[in-house]
Write a structure and sequence with these properties.
mainly alpha; globular; UPF0056 membrane protein
């Protein structure tokens, strides 16, 4: 259970489904509620697939290119810190994807994979964390627990997107801005932790 909660907490702030709500509502404003819910469900299923694939196969990809996990943690930490800084600034939710991507998404009938699942929900930061979760010391049960954590994250993200219209009306712009700053601070802390843990492992455990 601890592994499930640790996986969920590590990914939730970076995935930040609350930050995806404004873009999701913009891209589905002309859709029926049923179609909007289907788009949200498919996007969350795609997110599970993307994060699970990178969790299970990411280490082998790194080995193929000769990249150490510590290198990934430092690079991923820098990306996560940048995402955190963006969330701490006003209008961060609008900056998460470019206006060109939003405009292209408005012309598409299916926005579940792109831009919603990638890069909104499972972006570079979430992918970096997913790869970083894999270690050779994990048992099969541990891996299953991590995958369950990813599925739990997708379920919560679907609920948030499904009720995004009601949440936006209830929280208002000021509430969403405050939530964005809270998420930004947490994401920034995660990025710092990634970099510090990688540097500690490089300089104090490797000889």
């Amino acid at each position: 259970m601890e592994i499930i909660l640790a996986t969920f907490s590590a990914l939730f702030s970076v995935v930040n489904p609350f930050g995806a709500m404004p873009v999701f509502l913009t891209l589905t404003q002309d859709d029926t509620p049923v179609s909007r819910n289907q788009q949200a469900l498919k996007a969350c299923l795609y997110m599970v697939g993307i994060l699970a694939v990178f969790f299970l196969a990411g280490q082998y990809v790194l080995n193929f290119f000769g990249i150490r996990i510590h290198d990934l943690r430092i690079a991923g930490g820098l990306m996560i810190m940048k995402a955190g800084f963006d969330l701490l600034t006003p209008g961060a939710n609008k900056k998460k994807i470019s206006p060109e991507v939003v405009e292209e998404g408005q012309q598409k009938e299916d926005i579940s994979f792109t831009p919603l699942a990638m890069p909104m929900l499972s972006g570079p930061g979430a992918i970096a964390i997913s790869i970083g979760l894999f270690t050779t010391s994990l048992s099969y049960l541990d891996m299953i627990m991590i995958l369950i954590g990813i599925i739990l994250l997708a379920a919560v993200s679907y609920i948030i997107l499904r009720f995004s219209y009601q949440l936006t009306r209830y929280m208002g712009k000021s509430g969403l801005a405050a939530l964005s700053r809270i998420m930004g601070f947490i994401v920034l802390s995660i990025g710092v932790n990634f970099i510090v843990s990688a540097l500690t492992a490089l300089f104090f455990t490797e000889r």
